[in-house]
Predict the structure.
Amino acid sequence: MGDVARLAGVSAQTVSRVSNGFAGVTEDTRRQVLAAMRELGYRPNSAARALRRGEFRTLGVITFSLSTLGNIRTLDAIATSAAREGYAVTLLPVAVPTQDEVNGAFSRLGELAVDAVIVIMEVHLLDAATVSLPPGVQVVVADSDAGDRYTVVDTDQTGGARDAVRHLLELGHRTVWHLAGPEDSFAAQRRANAWRATLDEAGGGGSGSLEAPPLVRGDWSAESGYRAGLLIAEQPDCTAVFVANDQMALGLLRALNERGRRVPEDVSVVGFDDIPEAASFLPPLTTVHQDFAEVGRLCVEGVLSKMREGGEEREAGQEHGTTLVPTRLVLRRSTAPPPGAV
């Protein structure tokens, strides 16, 4: 650091501020210091810096799957938000969603020297009713039902599904079919529950409830949406389908087309996620937009806040609980009034 300071004509303190990304250095001075670092081949010693400052500037992320779009986009948002705050991300995929695997993942992250952990827990554990996370670690959980025990950030799954079903009912459809995600998914469970509850509310409850068609399940993939769509296409009374994600909706659109069911003239379709390709579906897909960037930002903001507070309990109701990120319904051309509507 002294060599860099002499070459750049600045103090060692200025070199330290530049290497640590602190403010209070002019742009010209920063460029001068960086040029001296490059010329001398100087790299800050991150291990020594971690010992001195008591932090590693790294967040651990545990996830059970990298195959789903939601997890990938949430992870991308976490990494982007962490980098904006000057933190790196260490990713640790867990092969099997069990309590033992979760405990093992936390142990491995401890060995890798991370300051805090974000857990993307989108599925139920196989060997426990509820997850139990190690004490003494600053943790935020994304997409879970652990809000009464941990700090959780999630999309408003219920509100988004309710908006989708209400939109179809307001167009005049007598009922709405649902192509749900897998049973072990928290998000799929909330969307399916909201679908059924919205049909019940629309009928006034009790014996006046709208009849909910049989629930059809997929596995989030377009192929599973296609297979389910072949079954749905054979139902002559089906005029509207709420699909739990856009990829399954893509498969459903293909199946309906192959069976001669026009969208939206014969069957209206609403998806969930608003993936970038949704506007290019044929027809362009009406869907529920999830703000993955905001979910990632709030996860990082939450875990950094815990670190800065040293894990001390805040006022009741603020330390634990769930923060819901709002959704919005994006109207495109895959929905319309049912056939024969005036």
Observations:
- The mean pLDDT is 87.
- The radius of gyration is 25 Å.
- The first helix runs from residue 2 to 8.
